[in-house]
Amino acid sequence: MEPALTEGAFDMRLTRYFLPVLKETPSEAQIASHRLMLRAGMIKQATAGIYSWLPLGFKVLRKVENIVHEEQARAGHIPIQMPVLQSADLWRESGRYDDYGEEMLRMKDRHGRDMLYTPTAEELVTDIFRAHVGSYKDLPLTLYQIQWKFRDEIRPRFGVMRGREFYMKDGYNFDLDYDSAIHAYNRHMVSYLRTYERMGLQAIPMRADSGPIGGDDTHEFLVLAETGESEVFYDSAITTLQFGEREVDFDDRDACAAIVKEWTTPYARTDETHDADLFAQVPQERQRRSRGIEVGQIFYFGTKYSEPMGATVQGPDGKAVPVHMGSHGIGVSRLLGAIIEASHDDKGIIWPEGVTPFHCGIVNLKQGDDEADAASESIYASLKALGLDPLYDDRDERAGGKFATMDLIGLPWRITVGPRGLKNGVVELTCRRTGTSEEMPPEQAVERVAQIYAPHFSSGSGVEPMANRSFHTWL
Ligand code: 5CA
What we know:
Elements: H1 32-39, E1 43-47, E2 50-53, H2 55-75, E3 78-79, E4 85-87, H3 88-94, H4 96-99, E5 105-108, E6 114-117, H5 122-132, E7 141-150, E8 165-175, H6 178-198, E9 203-207, E10 217-224, E11 230-235, H7 253-264, E12 268-270, H8 276-280, E13 287-302, H9 306-309, E14 312-314, E15 320-322, E16 324-331, H10 332-342, E17 344-345, E18 348-349, E19 360-364, H11 370-385, E20 390-393, H12 399-409, E21 413-417, H13 419-423, E22 427-431, E23 437-440, H14 442-457
Helix pairs in contact: 1-10, 2-6, 2-10, 6-7, 11-14
This protein binds 5'-O-(N-(L-cysteinyl)-sulfamoyl)adenosine.
5'-O-(N-(L-cysteinyl)-sulfamoyl)adenosine binds near residues 328, 329, 331 and 334.
């Protein structure tokens, strides 16, 4: 049998790759993440708020997406894919076609029918549900997708942070009653806490406003950053919480509720729901006012869509009841901006190990030197044989230029190979975050890199991590 074509099967020598880094700082970019994504050749603006994803950006987008899929699988949610173009008719049923306003991109097809580019998908998923589910015995059910969305933002800015076209995970739960739907809400909160931590982020759930999605119960997840668009108020105690390596049974209502309680007890709210009197009760030395990037939001809205759209199931007593629903979003493309805002320095990006586009860079200081070439090739092959994904800078360039590129694109680890070191049998292993370097024999450097990534290859709970799989086999 042919082995599966994995990501690692691609040739990752820089001379054969497409990494259009920019020397100049683009003047249109106001914040670090936008500047760095453009400079590192991750994205190119196609038109206002709409971007093409170049190889490096696309690779990180896929990594972030894979973490989202893995964590959704762990929580028991089921992936589907819905179209981006939808008929306006469904949105008339829910009453949102007129309510949604100018953010919705509307168009007509050749027959004059009203169409739209999906800004979210409550209506479409409810239509799928009502067509196929009729009994409480088929509940609970949570369907989700990762799909492009379009919102005609009045001021698209900060690159992928506030785009018009953006990539979003949107999930929808269908439950028989309030208690079961609240468990779905809690399960999503727990699952999201895990998801963001795996990306090296601290995202704080904060009580928020539900906007056009509707409902009273909603939390936004915020990554603290000066450049964030939301004003937030919180008790600093919440920043000490860590999900860590806990094992969670996602079917256990009490266990999920306890975790939600832990994260929702300290005060944390966006300005929309901020309550000055309540905030004043937080000990003064722990009161924080700051800014944050919203990387996700969860909603419980009960029967807001199921009732007008007739999404009912037969309950145990034989009576038809509208299902209780919620929706749950993660800003997948925005996350790339958020991760960079949280992790960069003046030289460039510093990728957390969980989402780095390549595990390790290899810099050959003297391309064309037989020994340096052979040692670099051998390190490249050894890392690949271990299932790792190295990027080998095999260009005939000055060392300074190679280091600048590696620092800019932010690979967490770099192995530097040069004739001088090789005479002593050593190469250099450098940590991007701390800047510290250590000399060691090539085999040992390979071994160390493998050890560093080992935790990212075994995520426990029966969900195999992406690094061992071919593209998209999570489905
Ligand atoms: N239907 C619900 C949940 S699926 C929903 O649409 N929620 S949302 O409006 O809060 O969007 C979910 C996430 O998408 C947000 O938390 C944010 O991270 C991301 N997002 C929203 N608008 C944009 C945008 N213009 N650009 C980039 N990301 C965005």
